[in-house]
Design brief:
The chain is mainly alpha-helical and 467 residues long. 56% of the residues lie in helices and 2% in strands. The longest helix is centred in the C-terminal third of the chain and has 28 residues. The N terminus is likely disordered.
Length: 467
């Protein structure tokens, strides 16, 4: 095992104190030289396994704005700008990452997380000799489908759909934020000044959004190349719907335990339907996501007094550091060293095992503690939040209200989904026509899911009159 003190400056990141039983001193020196050249712009040539800009393609012919062009953007850079200027992206500032409405303005929001992931993914792509514009675009769009209240919001939407109409849950499938992200960029979001729905992103970016969410405990990942990106996305979405519909409910619908058991069974069945990143750049985002949120979530829990910084396990302190920034620094260093020149992205075996242990033994129990606070509504002053049962009850109420309004829009013209969502942003007929994955009977249900999923935490509270 080599203990080295070489320094590699990567936009403010330096490699030091590297411990590796997988790389020799000479190999680390060569990587240091090559990455320095890439970071300094001396060498920006992509490796053969990178995704070239020329491979980009879109669902329909791209109509660009007419203006004087001083320079040409790459297709993936253009995607990033379209995501940045979408309303869905703006709303991420008011959506939960882990903590809902925390009494601390420095706690991470969904937007903060997304910006950090996209920036990190771009830096990693430059260092590893692959396409930084593609990595950054996927990073910017990867959480566009998230609901308010974080992952709790995903579960609540699934439970709400079941309670309103269990057949609708079987027809639409459980709510998955990565699938909703595809819906956002393909049929919900709109480009200002253009009549068509969707952002018309390159299919590499859309597939990256669909495939960013998966087995978070992986320490290394390789792209799974597919001939047709759209066909793979459709296979995945239809697979989730089929898996959701196969699990039949048995029991009393008024029994919370029976409902919980059923939802867990459906979620377990859906987990077997997977979609893997198809490009090395999507693999980078896949790992950058957890690389950022694990240390970031720990720092947030320290800020809110759920845990003390000194509680961090010794094996983490010794290898990764004592705070989130140190941990990210050392995870990035290890990942670059053990991914450079390879058609896979991952950590050394040592660091992968430490990170996995940190998640399973330390972070996950903390998440469970936070979830219990959210369920009970008693956060010890850390959040301004009603109990989960109360939020769920109001979500069911709002879902039924919105559904009724869509079925009689003239009679409910003052309802927010009619007045604002369809009155200002979308034509209902065209909107329904774009729901390729839904039978006509359930298209109003999907529209309500879209509307609630797009809501910010505060908007939901106002609509539900919980504040």
């Amino acid at each position: 095992m080599y203990k080295l003190s070489f320094q590699l400056y990567m936009g403010g990141i330096d490699l030091f104190g590297i411990t590796s039983d997988e790389l020799s001193q000479a190999e680390i020196k060569d990587i240091r030289k090559d990455v320095n050249a890439r970071r300094n712009g001396v060498n920006r040539e992509f490796f053969s396994f990178a995704t070239p800009n020329e491979a980009a393609y879109r669902e329909t012919e791209d109509f660009n704005r007419e203006h004087i062009r001083v320079f040409e953007q790459s297709p993936f850079s253009r995607d990033r700008r379209r995501i940045e200027w979408s309303n869905a992206f703006s709303r991420l500032a008011e959506k939960t990452q882990v903590w809902t409405c925390p009494y601390n303005e420095h706690v991470t929001s969904r937007l903060t997380h997304v910006l950090r992931v996209s920036s990190l993914a771009e830096d990693l792509a430059i260092s590893l000799g692959v396409n930084p514009d593609l990595s950054r675009a996927i990073g910017m769009g990867h959480d566009l489908g998230h609901t308010s209240f974080g992952h709790m919001g995903e579960e609540l939407l699934t439970r709400t759909l079941f309670k309103v109409n269990s057949d609708a849950l079987a027809a639409l499938g459980v709510f998955r934020h990565n699938i909703q992200g595809v819906h956002v960029v393909d049929r919900i979001a709109r480009r200002a000044g253009f009549p068509d729905y969707g952002l018309n992103l390159t299919r590499h970016v859309v597939h990256g959004i669909a495939s960013h969410d998966g087995e978070v405990d992986k320490g290394r990942i390789s792209p799974k190349r597919v001939e047709n990106l759209d066909a793979d996305i459709e296979r995945y979405i239809r697979g989730v719907i089929r898996a959701s519909g196969k699990v039949r409910f048995e029991g009393d619908r008024n029994n919370p335990d029976a409902v919980d058991k059923h939802i867990k069974a459906v979620q377990s069945a859906v987990k077997k339907v997977v979609i893997a990143p198809a490009t090395i750049e999507a693999c980078i985002v896949f790992l950058a996501d957890s690389l950022q949120y694990c240390p970031g979530d720990f720092d947030d829990m320290v800020r809110l007094g759920v845990v003390k910084r000194g509680d961090l396990p010794g094996y983490v302190k010794r290898r990764l550091g004592k705070c989130g920034s140190d941990m990210i620094h050392n995870l990035v260093n290890d990942l670059v060293l053990h991914s450079y020149g390879k058609e896979s992205v991952g950590y050394s075996k040592e660091v992968a095992e430490i990170l996995l242990r940190f998640k399973r033994e330390f972070l996950y129990p903390l998440y469970l503690r936070v979830n219990e606070m959210i369920k009970s509504g008693d956060s010890g002053g850390r959040m301004n939040l009603p109990s989960q049962a109360k939020i769920e009850g109001q979500m069911v109420f709002l879902f039924k209200k919105y559904l009724e309004a869509l079925r009689d829009s003239d009679g409910h013209s003052d309802c927010s989904i009619v007045q604002h969502y369809f009155g200002e942003e979308h034509d209902m007929g065209e909107y329904f026509d774009r729901m390729w994955h839904v039978d006509d009977e359930y298209k109003p249900y999907q529209a309500v899911v879209d509307f609630i999923a797009g809501s910010t935490d505060d908007f939901f509270f106002r609509e539900a009159r919980l504040r």
